[in-house]
Design a protein that fits this description.
Helix content: 25-40%
Strand content: 15-25%
Oligomer: single chain
Largest sheet: 6 strands, parallel
Distance between the termini: 43 Å
Shape: globular
CATH topology of the largest domain: Rossmann fold
Number of helices: 13
Order of helices and strands: EHHEHEHEHEEHHHEHEHEHEHEEH
Strand order of the largest sheet: 3-2-1-4-5-6
CATH superfamily of the largest domain: Glycogen Phosphorylase B
Structural class: alpha/beta
Length: 347
């Protein structure tokens, strides 16, 4: 790399994927501290990049046809030295080529051929047997070697804003430990039942003496209200959608997060909050939260006791309800174990 590289990293979505770019971006920054590093994302995910100290600014994917000419003009005017396309699509391949960068890398995995191979100067392939056997962060890190960037760390980190943390601390008002519960998921098939969340929340407050705080994303107000309806104890809830920056602050303020395998899970792990995560049939090997000390709960697979045989689609993790095989007892035990760890003296 030259003295002051201009680096573009392409990963348009989703929240968890963008958070898990952290170790890739951290290694770029350590190798070239003076580089300009931008990440191409959809506008909805720009907020989380503001919390990554290794990113200078996002490059927003245009919304609507009218915005594309200005985007292409900006892309062409910037003297990019390196473009890392971490998505295997025709559109992102063309963006990579239009950048004019002398180093243009395309990353792909498994049996999926790289789209528009001629758009790249370098290609990195992750064999399927490797791709499915380790975290997605290792897949992203494979793109570093062709650019001569050594792997110095595998840390994924986000840094919440101090003023957001202070503001939320005043709102929550808790003086003791907090269990933050994010019960939503991008797929309604992956939702653990509201009445079971309520039962765990009740036991956490009654038996562990912790304050429970509920939070949800867009469209999850009804789910949160359902949990409050089933609960016998008072649950503090944020029913209006949070900005990603404020959710990160709330996660940092909390002692433990209970959630599904989701984007918020990855945000919480990246700010250093221990997680209890509920998985269905999706891969807990490929998409674990970053760092150590988390508890991942998953029913035994392959499934032999389907909870919804008329609805579930075998081998399709987006269309089955395996997460419903997890019991209240198992989830509460995991939450209790996390709080016990927090109380344990450091060795």
């Amino acid at each position: 790399m030259q003295e002051s590289p201009q680096i573009l990293v392409i990963r348009r979505h989703y929240l968890g994927d963008i958070v898990l770019l952290g170790s890739f971006l951290r290694n770029l920054r350590l190798h070239r501290p003076s580089a300009l590093i931008r990440v191409l994302v959809e506008p909805a995910y720009a907020g989380v990049l503001a919390l990554n100290p290794d990113v200078d600014e996002p490059l927003l994917l245009p919304e609507g046809v009218a915005a594309w000419p200005r985007f292409i003009l900006e892309l062409r005017r910037t003297r990019w030295t390196h473009v890392f396309n971490l998505e295997n699509t025709e559109g992102t391949a063309l963006i990579t080529r239009l950048s004019g960068a002398p180093f243009r890398l395309g990353l792909h995995h498994g049996g999926f051929p790289l789209k528009f191979k001629s758009c790249y100067t370098h290609i990195e392939h992750d064999p399927n047997e490797l791709h499915e056997s380790r975290p997605i962060t290792e897949y992203f890190l494979r793109a570093l070697a062709p650019a001569g960037v050594p792997i110095a760390t595998r840390e994924v980190r986000l840094v919440p804003r101090d003023d957001d943390v202070a503001a939320l601390k005043r709102i929550v008002g808790a003086t003791g430990p907090i269990l933050l519960v994010h019960p939503g998921s991008r797929s309604h098939w992956r939702l653990w039942p509201a009445e079971r969340f309520a039962a765990v929340c009740d036991r956490a407050q009654e038996e562990l003496g912790v304050q429970v705080v509920l939070v949800g994303g867009p469209g999850e107000r009804a789910l949160i209200e359902s949990i409050r309806k089933f609960a016998h104890t008072h649950l503090l809830a944020f029913t209006d959608p949070f900005a990603l920056t404020r959710f990160a602050a709330l996660a940092r303020l909390s002692s433990v997060l209970l959630c599904h395998d989701s984007g918020p899970m990855h945000v919480a792990a990246a700010v250093g909050t221990p997680v209890v995560a509920l998985y269905g049939s999706q891969s807990s090997v490929l998409f674990p939260p970053a760092g150590s000390g988390h508890i991942l709960l998953q029913p035994s697979l392959p499934c032999t006791e389907c909870v919804a045989p008329a609805e579930c689609v075998p081998l399709d993790s987006y269309h089955n309800q395996c997460v419903r095989r997890l019991t209240v007892e198992a989830v509460f035990a995991a939450v209790s174990r996390q709080f016990s760890r927090l109380k344990a003296p450091a060795s």
